[in-house]
Amino acid sequence: MKRYQRIRALIIAIFLLGVALQGCARTAGPQEYRKDIFALNTWVNIRIYTGKEGPDILDKAIKRIEEIENRMSVTIQDSDVSRINSNAGKQPVKVHDDTFEVIKKALEYAEISNGVFDITIYPIVKLWGITSEHPRVPTEAEIQDKLRFVDYRNVVLNEAEKTVYLKEPGMGIDLGAIAKGYAADEVARILKEEGVVHALINMGGNVVAMGGKPNGQPWRIGVQDPRAEGARRHIAIIEVMDGSVVSSGDYERYFEEAGKRYHHIFDPSTGYPANSGLMATTVVAPNSIDADALSTTVFVMGVERGLELVDKLEGIDALAITFDKKIYTSKGLKGKLIVTDKEYELQP
Ligand code: ADP
Ligand code: MG
Questions:
Q1: Which residues pair with 339 in a beta bridge?
Q2: DSSP H or E run through 291
Q3: Closest residue by CA, ligand 1 atom 15
Q4: What's the pLDDT at 12?
Q5: Residue of the nearest CA to atom 6 in ligand 1?
Q6: Closest by Cα among 51, 10, 63, 46 to 27
Q7: Reported CATH class of domain 31-69+183-346
Q8: CA distance linking residue 182 with residue 103, whole number of Å
Q9: Cα 302 to the chain's mean position, in Å?
Q10: Is 125 in the pocket of ligand 1 (CB under 6 A)?
Q11: Which residue from 10, 121, 296, 321 has the fewest beta carbons nearer than 10 Å?
């Protein structure tokens, strides 16, 4: 009888110890910390798993995003970009390393894409007023007039001096298609530096996944339904441990006139919103800056040219969604995309 009681006590003790250890693991282990802010013209959400230093780490990340915004925004008066634009045709402008690096990368993508990706699109962006309160469809003459200033080959970089010069008066640059990617990479870099292993960064469709979920599973990134009007719902899922998933589409920013949709991604060869048969594109890449530049590029190029380009680039994948709800993927994504909406048809 005594022996039985001892065994019972032992079992209870082991059970209690188990409960206690589990409790410890829960309080001492990483916790989830989140932050939502509006920056770079979009909602930014950062989710990290770490100890009680979480809020400080998040503050550091947010400060960095604001710093980047202050340097690269086209609407902030004394940003590097505004100073470059107001000195077009006048003189080279000294910029922060951040800005220089992003412009340099943008020009690389302009070369790779043969000018499909072109940050000197700004005069066209401004003409259409896409980012303003009063967007409108310009006349053909107005478009031709502004199109003269769109040419990335007239951006002159001086690596030693860290200056940027726009050769022609009337030119302007806009880093809207690439700056968020850079900012997301910078946030990821800071989080890593601070010892964060698991994190998910979402800057308005510019996602960076770090270290998989805390439970060891990959992050599941939703591909947004391009026609879900306001509501957030996904039509497919991409699983990623580490890397970036960035989407571009005609649903992000647009206005309608006479029943026609005019969106914010322009074809530099026409001066009109890109009309390549796509509603959206998503690019998967190790770095967000590449995914960002390429999602815009593939969107303008369309299925054939866009995916052909992506297939040539090492470690980069993409999908493209056409108006008739077909999903085309690059070679590396075959068999990996999880389509969750029956209306969308995955192409072999
Ligand atoms: P989002 O800003 O919705 O994430 P993108 O990354 O595709 O989408 O960037 C679109 C922005 O990039 C536009 O608002 C405009 O400022 C700029 N842009 C538009 N067309 C081009 C282009 N062909 N090349 C480079 N930048 C562009
Ligand atoms: Mg982009």
A1: 236
A2: helix 288-301
A3: 176
A4: 55
A5: 177
A6: 51
A7: alpha beta
A8: 11
A9: 19
A10: yes
A11: 10
Angle at 316 between CA 314 and CA 319, to 5 degrees: 140
Number of neighbours of residue 323 by Cβ within 10 angstroms: 11
| pLDDT, block means (10 residues), the chain with 348 residues | 58 53 56 96 96 96 98 97 98 98 98 98 95 90 98 98 98 97 98 97 96 96 88 91 95 84 94 96 98 98 98 97 97 94 95
Question: Which of 268, 271, 250 shows the shortest CA–CA distance to 139?
Answer: 271
- Ligand number nearest CA of 121 is 1
Q: What is residue 253's predicted lDDT score, i.e. its pLDDT?
A: 85
Q: How far is the CA of 19 from the centre of ligand 2 (A)?
A: 49
Residue nearest to atom 9 of ligand 1 (CA): 177
Residue spans of alpha helices (H) in 169-240: 179-193
Ligand 1 mean position, distance from CA 177 (Å)? 4
> Whole-angstrom Cα distance, residue 102 to residue 139?
32
Task: Look at residues 98, 139, 146 and name the one whose alpha carbon lies nearest to residue 124.
Answer: 146
Q: How far apart are CA 64 and CA 127, in angstroms?
A: 31
Q: Ligand 1 centroid vs 264 CA: distance in angstroms? A: 6
The dihedral through the CA atoms of 325, 330, 331, 337 has a sign that is negative
Strand 326-329 to strand 345-346: parallel, antiparallel, or no bridges (unpaired)? Answer: parallel
Tokens of 294: 């390429």
Measured CA to CA, the distance from residue 129 to residue 141 in angstroms comes to: 16
Q: What is the CATH number of domain 75-166?
A: 1.10.3980.10
- Of 76, 291, 263, 42, the C-alpha closest to 178 is 291
Number of residues that this document lists for the chain: 348
Going by DSSP bridges, is the β-strand pair 198-203/219-224 parallel, antiparallel, or unpaired?
unpaired
283 CA distance to ligand 2 middle (Å):
9
91 touches 156 (CB < 8 A): no
274 pocket-lining for ligand 1 (C-beta < 6 Å): no
Q: Check for a shared fold between 31-69+183-346 and 75-166.
A: no
**Is 296 near ligand 1, meaning CB less than 6 Å away?**
yes
